[in-house]
Amino acid sequence: MSKIVFVIARKELKLLFVSPLAWTFLALIQLIITWVFLGRLDAFLELQSQLMQIANPPGATEVIIVPMFAVASIVLLMATPLLTMRLIAEEWRNRTMVLLISAPISMTTIVLGKFLGMMVFFLLTTLLTVILSLSLLAGGTMDFGLLVSNAVGLILLSASFVAVGLYISSLTSHPAIAALGTLGLLLALWIADIVASDFNTVIQNFSLLRHYESFNRGLIDTFSLVFFVLFILTFLILTIRRLDGERLHG
Amino acid sequence: MINSESSLENVSTRVQEVVSDVTVTAHNLSRRFGNHSAVRKVDLELKRSEVLGLLGPNGAGKSTTMQMLTGNLAPTSGSVQICGVDLIKNPLGAKRHIGYLPENPPLYKELTVDEYLQFAARLHNVDLSKTNDVLIDVKRRCGLEGIGKRLISALSKGFQQRVGIAQAIIHRPEVIILDEPSVGLDPNQIREIRDLIKELGKSCSIILSTHNLSEVESVCDRVKIMNHGVVVYSTALAELKQKALNLEQIFEQYTLKNE
């Protein structure tokens, strides 16, 4: 079974990279992140002399890398729906799902394969961001702990976005509707924080970005970690159930 | 060449004599969509190296039956066994023996023929070291030599249909289910596809649906006519020939009277 997961993941990646969408996305995120990176670097160099006078001054990692990862999360929020929309919706539309369902593989294998394929792409995105951060080493030292925490946070956040995107994509045979639906749900989960901030209620805990913020600050919070894992699992299981349901109810 | 073909025939007839086992059994197969019942109480039995033709007007339930036989649609009631394995209880075990070409060939148009067939082979657990040989063999059988590097989207309808068939037979299944395999092909291609089906029918069980009555007469051993979700007529073609009956008249007789 595990072998077929990789077969499907490979196919997803191949389909992703034959379309210009993936390349455009990679170019876009690199452009925006580099822009933030250079802007913050400029600010840091200007402020450096003043910062030295503070007792416990923030380092380059805090001033440059942290805001860069914060921006990266917003770009992911906007762009993930466009990348995940065709994962299953297009298979319904082009009737290619039949090929997967007729093969001797389980729905779980199909869903995990698609999820893994997309995650390889987002690991690549994270890797590019990390490499950009590492270029700071040319001019000084870095807080590696903070960088790792940010990278882990970004991977978990993108995995959550992909899980949502995968599920919404399984609900419709129109990729555009899948993209809109995913964007809507992700925005709602983002805003959950703002709406609930006055009440300090349970809803607040459902804000993905709030959990990401703790990683962003360099804090690997067990609650946030568990939340992300449960969130991803929930949507993967929902997708598997949805595919099984389609076969049963047609 | 002639030698190898005749030896193949020998082997297949021997297999038929020795094993002669049943590959597909469907019992009491029914499927409802809400209040509409698409297929009602279809019984089906197929032996090795038999070709069964499913005939019937549009909407008769042929495709639905095939979807249930391949595990794409769960039946409301009834059971299916493929090579002795229950499709509902052990879907993965049963699907191993099936090759399926649905009405719309499930093609990833952005891939090349080779990439697509490789993916299909890996999905069906074809041994990685053998993939190359399998690919060459299946392309030869389906007349796809020389276009392995072409994008599927750039192929004509006829070639796309052949890629669809190649996908269905790449893992050498014992049961091949073809939903309207010759639709959209020109007369030469139809003849080639028929020859291919005949050749495959020597060693496998094949179920095919079609609107072309002469196709049934030329490749099938048995025929079932469906109408409004029910099998209304079922016979062996040899019997039909013996009684000098005309398939076209029978088809009209059984499918028009209910209108």
From TrEMBL, chain A:
<dbReference type="Pfam" id="PF12679">
    <property type="entry name" value="ABC2_membrane_2"/>
</dbReference>
<feature type="transmembrane region" description="Helical">
    <location>
        <begin position="176"/>
        <end position="197"/>
    </location>
</feature>
<feature type="transmembrane region" description="Helical">
    <location>
        <begin position="63"/>
        <end position="84"/>
    </location>
</feature>
<feature type="transmembrane region" description="Helical">
    <location>
        <begin position="119"/>
        <end position="139"/>
    </location>
</feature>
<feature type="transmembrane region" description="Helical">
    <location>
        <begin position="151"/>
        <end position="170"/>
    </location>
</feature>
<dbReference type="GO" id="GO:0140359">
    <property type="term" value="F:ABC-type transporter activity"/>
</dbReference>
<keyword id="KW-0812">Transmembrane</keyword>
<keyword id="KW-0472">Membrane</keyword>
<keyword id="KW-1133">Transmembrane helix</keyword>
<feature type="transmembrane region" description="Helical">
    <location>
        <begin position="21"/>
        <end position="43"/>
    </location>
</feature>
<dbReference type="GO" id="GO:0005886">
    <property type="term" value="C:plasma membrane"/>
</dbReference>
<keyword id="KW-1003">Cell membrane</keyword>
<dbReference type="InterPro" id="IPR051449">
    <property type="entry name" value="ABC-2_transporter_component"/>
</dbReference>
<feature type="transmembrane region" description="Helical">
    <location>
        <begin position="218"/>
        <end position="240"/>
    </location>
</feature>
<protein>
    <submittedName>
        <fullName>ABC-2 type transport system permease protein</fullName>
    </submittedName>
</protein>
